[in-house]
Amino acid sequence: MNNDKKAYIAGGCFWxxxxxxxxxxxxxxxxxxYIGGENEHPTYxxxxxxxxxxxxTYDPSVTTFKELLDYFFRMHNPTTIDRxxxxxxxxxxxxxxxxxxxxxxxxxxxxxxxDASQKWEGKVVxxxxxxxxxxxxxxxxxxxxxxxxxxxxxxxERFTESFL
Length: 164
Known about the structure:
peptide-methionine (S)-S-oxide reductase activity, single chain, Met_Sox_Rdtase_MsrA_dom
């Protein structure tokens, strides 16, 4: 019986996030795409209000939603509004797209822990947004850094130690 779950997050350019999450324990699959915006069937050139996000398929017997969020807060800067590295605009916002109240509460819990740690210079500005539709990005964006190992990314593990 398959008990896999999915998580939806955004934290800047989706390529770098996908590359780091793909090898995490318990992560079975990643897909990049657009979420939280205004139009249906968004594209790279037309995704107003959508964030560049990732869909993470994971085995909850190996990793938890909170553990995924812990890593999320260690591999991108959650204190910048609509920005990661050189990428600017709402497409690059830090966001968690919760699917139910339990995920929302767990996200709030992890965000409070991250803030209390004072490891980041500013306060967490990650938005909590209800899940809508995740629209997979075009094929050329999937597994981009696997196919282009020297491609652009602004993501890296900033803290090796867990916040939890």
